[in-house]
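quick one, 296 residues, struct below
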Amino acid sequence: MEMNSQQLNPIIGKMRYNEVSAILPDIAFPYAIVKGEVLSLYAYGDVGQRTSSDVDILVSRNHLEEMDQVLTQHGFSTTTRNRREAVMALAFSHQVKPYVKRRAFLSIDLDINFDIFWGEYTGPRVDMDDFISDAEPVEIYGVTVMTLPMDKTFVQLVLHHYKEMNSLYLLAEHNYIRRNLFQDLYFLVKRNPKTCSPAAVKEQCEKCGARPYAFYMVYYSSLVFPDAMWQPYIEILRSEEGEALLDWYGLSEQERKRWRVDFSARLDAPSVLEYIQQDLTKQDLEKIRRNREVFG
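---
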């Protein structure tokens, strides 16, 4: 009998975390596992509630070589084909190319992130050693791993989802302006009102420079999942810069463009390429080509 995703997710998750458990003793530097099963637990109350294709590990750029050594020792191989790809990923992204280990019918993929902001971001960078310094333990499929405290989980999530919804490359190739991304934020806040309080997330957002992007995510989440709980978050996170992002896409001021359609038209649309194609410059198209070459 064919299994659905709800039945498969825990089986695949256990296999992934069995591999993760083997590498943890050799990680002698701060790290945090983010999104995926941790988010499933924090937002939906149990593991296996979200479909994910990999395990995301956040480390400082200072420890990328050490992480590479650990993963190589445990049979993982980087999908980077040459030095040029590696340099481009470091220069234009927030992560290196994935590491993969083949297991029977399953590929174990690890995404190594070294920043919570995207490559195009021009503001002050967050000190990742400091950001990860207060990571706390959580049990996933019987494996104790380190993850971010709730206020930082909020920040990492809003930045990640904002990036997914505003990357020219992703908008051209896919459409991540999807209900399920707003759902992640809705249930994270709904289930954790104390540790994810308006005051706590505002303080952390301001430390990281994430307040405008958090306002964007909270504002649109309140449209997709109407709930009175959003009002204090909207009020405390509101800023001119945040409001200015609402009708625009792009990850830097230089590439930012105004949407030609409203939010309802782009939410869950199979593709938004037709809405942005005529506004893409030669520089934009080159960037999309470069990202396609490096990240596939």
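The two ends are 33 Å apart (CA to CA).
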